[in-house]
Amino acid sequence: MEKVLISDNVYKNLPELLKSLVVGFSEREKDIVLVSSLAVMSNCMPNIYGVYDGKDNLPHLYLMVIAPPASGKGTMGYSLELIDKIHQKILSDSKLQIAAWKKNKNSDGSSKPSIKVKLLPGNISSSKFYKYLSDSEHGLTIFETEADTLSSMLKQDWGDFSDILRKAFHNEKLSISRATDDYYLEIKHPKLSMVLSGTPGQVKPLIQSTENGLFSRFLFYYFNDIVKWKDVSPSNHNLNHKAIFKSAGNDLYTLYSNLMTLKNKIEFKLSDDQWKKLNADFGDATDVFETNGLGVLKSSVFRIAPIQFRIAMILTVIRNIKSISKHKEITCSDVDFRSSQLLIQYLLNHTIKVSELFEKEKNKLSVIEYSILSKLPKNFKRVDAIKISQKALVKDRTMDNYLKTWCIKKVVRKLSPGYYEKIKTK
After folding, report:
1. Measured between alpha carbons, how far is 88 from 364 in angstroms, rounded to an integer?
2. C-alpha distance from residue 17 to each of 49, 76, 269 (Å)
3. Which residues pair with 49 in a beta bridge?
4. Comparing C-alpha atoms, which of 312, 319, 223 is closest to residue 275?
């Protein structure tokens, strides 16, 4: 079966900084580097916002890379370099403030400053989570290469912060109160990004169900390819990836430093034509999901639309990284909007694949397959399917493969050469 990867058109049209990060990687590793870098970058853009559905929307993303052990998902770790300098600066400044307080605490009677970070470990209590979020003006990032680090915390009474994760995605107000010590804490606009990886078996303990609101807030990248040995000798690794990511991290540090000092926020906008395309795309996707027995995943469609908006925002900021702080507002280019479209169309299929881990249904189709199938009459000919698939930019050979798999999955039955009938499914 053909290995489906992120479109080459996305890579051809990436902003230069992102292009530099994916050089030297191929296939799955290249995809993982791209999506994890976008997710990390989503928390490096203070004072950038866009208006979506009448509400301010920030660029923060939740990402989970799912694959078997030793399959290459560890490449995600490179993207941690992108935010490390920001984290170290915040942590260092915080420690200096605490040291200064300790030295002079008897002189002014001020309370001890809080320790501040940019990177937050997954093995943390909910009360500590609230405190770090409250003390972080421009947001936190949870970066964990083992998803069960986070899921093990969610199982604990003192560590169940799943409601924080759900609300923080939409920057909704959070509050915590304890009667024992008359404690109350309110966070008006929590800002959080997450970058996780794990095996298929680590997904369900973390999210529990596709009907859990946390599921629809994630972008998933899921694969289960046959793992092959790769050349690990020095001659096959001419690039120092860590140095490349560290250099990019310096650029992001400069971006972050410039943006955080702005007096006025910068508004990201789509053009009228781009809004029309976004509404049309997700209107169609909602209809396709509803008419093909995927109604339980409609919430994912509704939330992946603002995620596309956020990805377009990130791409636009990175493309204008050197001049962004001079703008009052910035409009997405058609190139970056198209890239966000292609990425979301691709990753929406991964949402369907991950949902199978919960529902144990192996007969689900991709979004594009559902779209083509929904446009076909009950009885149809191969030529009818080809005409519809061509409009969707699907190759004839790929459409023939669809027809074969549809028969195997008992979505359609072959009546005679070139003639088919759709089978009604529950």
Report:
1. 45
2. 21, 17, 21
3. 267
4. 312
The single-letter code of the amino acid at 48 is: I
AA identity, residue 293: G
Extract the tokens encoding 376: 């076909």
Tokens of 267: 């508004």
* pTM score: 0.83
85 Cβ neighbours under 8 A, 6+ residues apart? 246, 249, 250, 252, 253
Taking alpha carbons only, the member of 218, 224, 176 closest to residue 200 is 224
* C-beta separation of 43 from 60 below 8 A: yes
Which tokens in the block code for residue 131? 């405190």
User: Measured between alpha carbons, how far apart are the two ends of the chain, in Å?
Assistant: 27
Interhelix angle 27-41/298-319, nearest 10 degrees: 80
Measured CA to CA, the distance from residue 210 to residue 196 in angstroms comes to 17
Residue 265 DSSP code: P
Which residue type, as a one-letter code, is found at position 315? L
Of 192, 189, 188, the residue nearest 139 (C-alpha): 192
Could you report the per-residue pLDDT of 59-93, keeping only the tens digit for each? 999 999 998 877 777 899 999 999 999 999 999 99
